[in-house]
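wait is this the right file?? whatever heres the structure
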């Protein structure tokens, strides 16, 4: 297949680009390199630099090559930043999706795989979440993704668009030399690496949640497993499989932040002391979800679990010698 990967120079998009090339597909990456890096793009893929919100640039891309499917990763992803600057989030994530979806259809490309988020659920009423759980985002980031899902659904009705929106949970790990090469230090694993580098204790935000050890429960999925789901979806859609719905990419199992910190200490032998600070605003106690729909539709289930996720993330981090690394 000819696959267009919008945002394919970033973390999850970059890993997916590598996996798509390894699976024998021809990949074109479109990315404005604002947070993406050209070195994340596989050498056998073509990189086109441009903004997804710019209709002329996007149209030019579709004029040049006939794509079988679009995968859309390009997004802003920092929740607190979205609260400060909603405009940037709706412009990049929602208007960017609208522009690319509409342009793809204008050029007859009818298959679209979109990166959505657990943030579409907001504060869960019960766990594990399923795709039928209520969606009630609690920040502009979550809204920007939910609106994009609704745009996909609307174009399905009006223009026969075939689509899938993958709702990611806590993605970590690395693959093919591509890792979180961006200052995501608010996220737990990059934050643990930052503590290690600075020889500081691990700071866990809150130990008084209603969970087994008082720390928040999250659902960690390896970036390689996430990428695999995208390639599987593209291949199945090309064979005529109808998806046309949001699909959780989750492990179904939650780990507490304390378990993550302990596993990090074991894997890295960093032996950092753990301190407990105040809760972080807006953190739900438990966020984990069933992947039954992904299994049923795509035969997908995650293969790589917490220890492997942390090991791969750590090994990638150690191998970095560029000045832009996360810490
Ligand atoms: N945490 C700490 N200490 C740190 C960093 C994080 O205790 O130094 C805790 C957080 O309080 C939270 C957990 O680790 O309980 C995970 O936090 P992350 O920031 O790594 O991830 P979130 O669960 O907040 O965010 C994830 C995705 C976002 C998505 C969000 C909402 O990374 O992209 O879920 O669905 F928007």
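ok assuming it is, sequence goes like this
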């Amino acid at each position: 297949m000819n696959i267009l990967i919008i945002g394919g120079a970033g973390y999850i998009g970059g890993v997916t680009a590598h996996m798509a090339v390894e699976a024998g597909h021809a990949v074109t990456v479109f990315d404005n390199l604002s947070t993406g890096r050209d070195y994340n793009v596989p050498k056998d893929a073509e990189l086109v630099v441009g903004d997804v919100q710019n209709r002329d640039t996007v149209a030019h891309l579709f004029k040049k090559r006939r794509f079988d499917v679009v995968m859309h990763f390009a997004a802003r992803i920092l929740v607190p930043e979205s609260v400060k600057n909603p405009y940037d989030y709706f412009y990049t994530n929602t208007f960017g999706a609208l522009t690319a979806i509409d342009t793809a259809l204008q050029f007859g490309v009818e298959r679209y795989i979109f990166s959505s988020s657990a943030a579409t659920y907001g504060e869960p009423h019960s766990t594990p979440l399923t795709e039928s759980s209520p969606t009630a985002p609690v920040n502009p980031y979550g809204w920007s993704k939910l609106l994009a899902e609704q745009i996909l659904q609307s174009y399905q009705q009006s223009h026969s668009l075939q689509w899938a929106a993958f709702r990611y949970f806590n993605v970590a790990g690395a693959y093919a030399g591509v890792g979180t090469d961006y200052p995501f230090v608010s996220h737990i694993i990059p934050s643990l690496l930052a503590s290690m580098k600075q020889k500081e204790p691990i700071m866990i935000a809150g130990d008084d949640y209603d969970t087994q050890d008082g720390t928040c429960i999250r659902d960690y999925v390896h970036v390689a497993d996430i990428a695999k789901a995208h390639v599987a979806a593209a291949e199945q859609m090309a064979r005529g499989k109808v998806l046309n719905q949001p699909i959780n990419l989750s492990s179904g199992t939650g780990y507490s932040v304390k378990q993550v910190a302990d596993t990090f200490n074991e894997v890295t032998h960093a032996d950092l002391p753990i301190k407990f600070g105040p809760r972080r605003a807006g953190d739900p106690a438990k966020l984990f979800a069933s992947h039954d729909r992904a299994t049923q539709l795509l035969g997908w289930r995650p293969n790589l679990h917490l220890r492997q996720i942390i090991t791969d993330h750590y090994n990638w981090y150690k191998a970095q010698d560029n000045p832009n690394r996360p810490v």
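The radius of gyration is 19 Å. so i think its the right one actually
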